[in-house]
Amino acid sequence: MATLFGINLFALSGQLLVGLINGSFYALLSLGLAIIFGLLKIINFAQGAMYMLGAFLAWMALQYFGINYWVALVLVPLAVGGFAILIERFLVRPIAKEDHLYSLLLTFGLALILQGLFTQLYGSSGLGYQIPAELKGGTKLPFMYLPNYRAWIIIASLVVCATTWWVIEKTKLGAYLRAGTENPQLMQGFGINVPLITTLTFGFGVALAGFAGVLAAPVYSVSPEMGSNILIVVFAIVVIGGMGSIGGAILTGLMMGIVEGLTKFFYPEASSTVIFLVMVIVLLLKPAGLFGKEA
Amino acid sequence: MQAMKKTLMAAAMSAAFAVTAQAEGVSDDVVKIGVLADMGGVYADICGKGCVTAVEMAVEDFGGEVLGKPIEVISADDQNKPDVGSAKVRQWIESEQVDAVNGLVASSVTGAVTKVLTDAKKVALISTSASHAFTTKACSPYNVHWTYNVAALANGTVKPMVESGKKKWFFITADYAFGHALEGIATKVINDQGGEVVGAVRAPLGTTDFSSYVLQAQASGADVIGLANAGTDFVNALKTSAEFGLTETSDVAGLLVFTHNAKALDPAIAAGMKATTGFYWDMDDKTREWSARFKQRHGSIPAMGQAGAYSMTMHYLNAIKAAGTDDADAVMAMMKATKPDDFFARNAYLRNDGRMVHDMLLVSIKDAASRQSDDDIYNIEAVIPGDVAFNPMMESCNFSAKS
Question: Which of A98, A160, A213, B180 is deepest in the core (most CB within 10 A)?
């Protein structure tokens, strides 16, 4: 087998690939956070809970209504986004003029309530969700066995991330969005309904978390804790990428997945901390984050 | 500070006198049992409110009072944090006159709480913790460890597999006290049986993605991948193993499987997997009768620690009645002198080190076709006699009834 400095290259390629898969989840979640923060200046601590909600809704849809994975992949993000729109309209907007800290605390409280509610209803042991029949099995690559579902995760999240980036950065709609947050009064004056745009953006950012939740349901245990486990890491990723940078959030998400994957290979004990270490270093060297604009 | 010291001195002295005098009757006119457990976190299902229910059931079945005094049950959430747990227990001892603490889940919390209880000469009734430290290197005359421990898991699950020729092992271990203890004792069992541990990875608690570890396990060429973790970690690790085809090339052994986690697993993945448990609801009429009552009140079948919490409370109350006092030393002596015997404790006795030795069960997870109901999860493969399952007593932990 090919080795480099005594490291098995085959094993290393496998680790890079699984790191990339994990990074896909990070990218989706941090993208949602970055959109909400970048455009609305809301630090949404409920993003992890919404990811959890997405996974639970997928499970409930199958269990109670027989709705399969593919339909859930479309319906659940819509439902989660719709729920977020209600939250934005009735809870977040009344305190939009206050300090950011208020919306942070509000969303944090919401996350705790949701997590507690699902623990109460379904317990903390987690529920099972099967991989859809079309994606069962896997492909034998020269260096590893790649389950088809994992390949699908990469494709699905990359397509969604790239499309989102393109819409926000390259289209007229995206330009309205960005302008609306830059100078709401002026945009209002041009006849653009800024509050509506704000609400829809929040809904979309959260819907991304719901989408990630459905993607995660077949591979991870669907449990009330799944969101809080991943949220802190995702926040670190947003900070590393630069608060509010859309493209930065996606790239950093993928990169940190790989960094974490390599740590799991070389020194597993540090795998839950390595991202925070990177965060510290980045903040020291480039306080605005890798892709952020200096304030 | 000075006043505090005085109070402590006074407390210590009165405690010393209490021992020599063997005070008769019930202190403070009430027997109070605190139930400390993770109520809303990852371990909430395996003890949590169910442990509170189990203890309450025991108190009701006992008649609600002992030696003419009422029995009271209070409870608190330790959030799996040692500092939160020990602060709560200290408060219980100082201002609530708690006589014993039941529940006790995360080994880290139990380690902190048992120290506080031993200092205050109160009884620790450990239902769900796995580490064997509480009756070995951190043993105490006031510790009672009831349901199971890591030694029983290793002897029950690992030993027969090594004996059947699965010699090469690889561990995916939860990176904290419990995982280390389990891996350590399993490694010893494997080496003693002529097997070999070819590698191990320590995965942080709460790891979501195990694919990296599964690839490493795959590359190791081991016969068996031992999962020295619990709860959601175990479920995620097993799911990922199946996804990456690991379950087809080698055996995957879950070393600590709770019924609630087994229930969450897809039978297509988990069927046939063996596990060691201290209790299973569907063993015989006695377990079914109690479990049905429990389920009616709690909403789900009992986990082993919940059944253990009931059994242990009964034995504790019986000992108070027999001793004629709730004084901890007298009650401990009586608990060790009398044998527990109920739906949970079979061929059981409480050893001098505080280890409750009883029959353990080797079970296997049923496939989908042979399940009669949602709760029908295990086949009982074998009964493991307590003396075979549990670790032998350390002489330094021999707290004989006299001392």
Answer: A213
